[in-house]
Amino acid sequence: MEKEYELIDNEERHQYEFHVEKYTPRIEYIKSKNGEIYLTHTEVPPQLGGKGIGSQLAEKALKDIEKQGLRLVPLCPFVAGYIHKHPEWKRIVLRGVHV
């Protein structure tokens, strides 16, 4: 079973992140003034690859975005792919944006 990691919204660095050993897997974002959030880049260090950490990070970030009532624009291919595999998350994607 994969370990659960705590989601950190590092507003100073504009990214969601986990702290895993000495590594920081992250999803970078841009928040607009009108309630949109653009997820621009996901990075999981190669040493942590294949453990489901990226998917867990994406899911927890999407839950946080939904909780905040933001409209999502998934520019990052990883996040777009995650939403494609889990279409229930299309509910928070900005209307008119195709995933």
TrEMBL record:
Highest rank taxon of the organism: Bacteria
InterPro entries assigned: Acyl_CoA_acyltransferase (IPR016181), Gcn5-rel_NAT (IPR045057), GNAT_YJDJ (IPR031165)
Gene3D superfamilies reported in the protein's UniProt record: 3.40.630.30
Domain N-acetyltransferase residue range list: 8-94
Pfam families for this protein: Acetyltransf_CG
PANTHER family reported in the protein's UniProt record: BSR4717 PROTEIN, PROTEIN NATD1
Protein name (database record): N-acetyltransferase domain-containing protein
Organism of derivation: Bacteroides stercorirosoris
